Amino acid sequence: MIVVPERAIADLISSAACFTAVEQVFASMARNSAYNFPVVRESIGYADALYGFKSGFDRESLTLGLKAGGFWPNNAKKGLTNHQSTVFLFDADTGRCRAMVGGNLLTALRTAAASAISIKYLAREDAKVLGMIGAGHQSTFQLRAAVQQRAFEKVVAWNYHPEMLGRLEQVSREIGLPFETVDLDRLGTEADVIISITSSFSPILKASQVRPGTHLACMGTDTKGKQEVEAKLVAASALFTDEVGQAITIGECQHAIAEGLIAEEDIIQLGAVIAGDAKGRLSPQEITLFDGTGVGLQDLAVASAVVDLAISQGVAIEVDF
């Protein structure tokens, strides 16, 4: 079995490679060549933690496996990342464990890649202002990936705890973009693209705060009960997602579904747009919303790429298992 520890990931894979792997997974899912198994994600009743499994199989690449992990909100006080996960890959021919891969950085990179892909296919070409809601660990990955998709001229941001926005301001300065801390009304008025990456269980952004033509990438809702935007805003948008089944049960769409504001048929797989089987944005005035629930196949694809790179570069750790 190959072991690729967390400390080795950063030197092995780039954000561009993650983007390619995730984009291919979207298309493979749309062709029904790859499918995700039902997600298990629960509060464990200890340390305020959420823990679960995401898994799946891609018949094209023969990638099979699972990611185990979750969210430990008190980890920051211990000098650890709140999101903790590990990816396990299995040989599709024999079922034997092929590899164990550190999943923390991979999760951040693939989540950022997914929202960036939604921007590539759904945001207006003339989008100039990027809005960020949330300033946790993954927010900087989201920002770095997003600015590669459009010629943004400015970043505006909001967070429940404004003192945390410094990390986004630092990244904005590194990439040469002006940065402003704003309230939600102004963020919605100015932003052409809005990325939300929070762990909120109550709506932050309202429909009245979002102007026509905006693209929203809602990346934080991946558990039953979580919610970043009000259901009315979801209903007012053209809806796209990574996995429809997850969107209506653990994603941002769950609340609009529960309130009867939308139907499952209203949600389009982003992979279908990538594959050319569905249309994306229909007009410059349309509000588009990507419900990024996070699918196991994306984790597996990126982890598989890491294993191949580790082997080719001679840094893979082999253990008798």
Describe this structure in words.
There is one protein chain. The protein is an alpha/beta fold. The chain has 11 helices and 18 strands. The strands form 3 sheets. Strands 1, 2, 3, 4, 5, 6, 7 and 18 form an 8-stranded mixed β-sheet that branches. Strand 6 (83-90) and strand 7 form a beta hairpin. Helix 2 packs across helix 11 and helix 4 (139-146) packs parallel to helix 5. The longest helix is centred in the middle third of the chain and has 19 residues, at 104-122. The termini are close together.
Produce the secondary structure layout.
Blueprint: E1 2-4, H1 6-9, H2 15-30, E2 34-36, E3 40-43, E4 50-58, E5 63-71, E6 83-90, E7 97-102, H3 104-122, E8 129-133, H4 139-146, E9 154-158, H5 166-174, E10 179-181, H6 184-190, E11 193-196, E12 201-205, E13 215-218, E14 227-229, H7 231-235, E15 238-241, H8 244-247, H9 253-258, E16 267-269, H10 270-274, E17 288-291, H11 296-312, E18 317-318
Parallel strand pairs: 1-7, 8-9, 8-11, 9-10, 11-13, 12-14, 13-17, 15-16, 15-17
Antiparallel strand pairs: 1-18, 2-4, 3-4, 4-5, 5-6, 6-7
Helix pairs in contact: 2-3, 2-11, 3-4, 4-5
